[in-house]
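Quarterly update from the structural biology core.
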Amino acid sequence: MRMEMKRLPPWLLKMTERRVAVIVTLALLLPLLRPGCTAKLEDTTLTAGVALSTGVEKPSGVLIAAIDERGIDELGPLPWPRATMARAIDRLNLMNAKAIAIDSGIMRASTAAESRAQGLRDDSGSVVAGYEFYTSLSDLPRGYELMGSEARMAELTLPQSPADDSPMAAMAGIDLSTLIHPGMRVSRSGFSNIFPDADDIVRRQPLAVRMKHKIFPSFAVAAAAAAKSFTPLVAEDPAGKPDGVKLGEVMVPTSSDAAIALRFRGRPGSFPSASIADIVSGKLPAETAMGKIVLIGVTDPKEAPFFATPLGPMAAIEIQANALDTILCNGPILPLTSRYLLLLFVAAAGIIFAAIGVRAPLMRRVAYSAGAIAAIWAAAIALYIWLGILIPAVHLSIAVGALLITTIAWRAIIVELPKRSRSHAFKMRLSEGSLARAMAEIAAIDKKGRERQLTACAIDIRGFASIAQPMQADKLCSFMRAYRMLMADVLLKHDAFIDTWTGDECRAVFGAPLSAAEHELFACKAAFTAIKVMTKAREEIERRYGVAKLRLCIGIASGCAAAGELGPRGAQNYGIIGGAVDAADMLRALNRSYRTSILVSDSARIAAEGSFAFRPLDPVMLPGEEKPVIIHELIGQTGVILPQLDGYLAGREWYLRGEFEKAVHAFSRVLEAHPHDGPSQLLLSRARHLLESPPRGHWTGVWGQA
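Predicted structure, tokenized:
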């Protein structure tokens, strides 16, 4: 059996959309506040850029001579004696390698006598040696001398002296056990320490560090300098802070601490490599290493630690290969992480949101935000691939998400909460359709007073005091609920605004707070329907509550009135005041005198006479009018004819002319045939009174004139 889900009401659907949007956005933003999460997400830009740029960049001039598991099995455990490494270096020189760089900790120290006994040459060609240094004094071994000698220290440094306040990283001392013994000459040396970020992921590497006013180059810088046959120099900006490393005519830009952001060539294993066992045994083809910078380092995870990178775990020698490749081929990443850039972006995005996003529907704002974030990431990947620029895509995305949350909060606080408050205040005062329009046109119901052209309708129950007095309290309240529900249903279906309820008295207006073109006609239709509904329900009400002769009195008047908040409780005290409202109240009360049900002002009658039939009564001075106006009784829809109408109109004509004797005669004849005609009864009694006590001065037809 197929079950159909009941359609949710529109207000619940809107609330659901809003809540879902907020929950989803917060779910995406809150994890970004966790330490390291932002950096990991930023790495996705780099990862995507590397993946998409595969095959775009130039081939690397780096070859890794991997000391892998097979190499250790064939050549022995590390560290190796100098003789083993010398054979590998000789082979690579015979293969015309451009430069050879040996990572730290691979060779065992040997004496010059041992070297001579092994018949090895002292000159090993263009060899770069790596070493490690202690990063802090607490890492130094007990009794450690900072350096073996000033002369040895000078061999490892660049011909530059940093300032005391240089932001370059400082080293506490060199690990002498990682230095190649003086018996084996090398052309250059550099530190091979790896520098992970705070989250233990390697993204940057310093190209130089300082100690005792001396600058020491990195392993990658030393290898690049050997390949280019230049002495590296640290360049400084006008403020004396490092801003790059010069290799001849080539300038490698760095941050103020002489570090670069690594532009990784690819995932682990992206660089060409050859087993050191094949090199020593001569199995490697000569063209493999020809013209290459060969980096000799450990790739066996059992012998050397691997470091986390944005692209996965890498051996130290592969990270050095990426650093060397960044220096020689690709150029370092230029991260645009300036807070001023971020503030500028947020300001620009805020202006765009304010211009097109704040007032847009919620789901459209979510779509704008998703599109903006997608554009940010696409731009970040494109900039990385082609220009090596890394923009803070995550931070910018967070900014977009925060702006989205801000707009949602802004609308909730500035727009939605007032709307909800007003919606609650106007509930059961406006129909659902009118309420939705009023919430969309919030200015229509603002607290400022606005002049409106409207039609007021006042309703009460004739003789309510005599009805209510004998009733018990619970029964009276039940009766009032039933009566008010009937009237409210009729009024709201005709787009009325229920202004006030006072006991049995109801005041409603048509044409405010939302303007309406035919408010007079709607008021007459509502009044006519209310009489029909009450007539239909009268029998049931009289049976249930013991009420006899339940009749309504309705007054309708058109004109100007002021609409706005009339009290300190804001929208709950929104109301209508003015001459039209007072006139409707007066007409409602006059029904008791004329013994009618619906009395209408002349202006309302003119607008509605195409749909309803009216009977004219005498002129009355209504509130808001400068002179007396003819009031009318609504007798039914167009085409309805009262059988006594002709006689009544004749008597009314004599009455208004001041010929009261003829008026008495005419009204008397009408009442002989229709003894319950209220207007004829009232005008007859007035004509008799005026016949006995004629009015002073000119008679205008207004009862009670002096």
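The mean pLDDT is 82.
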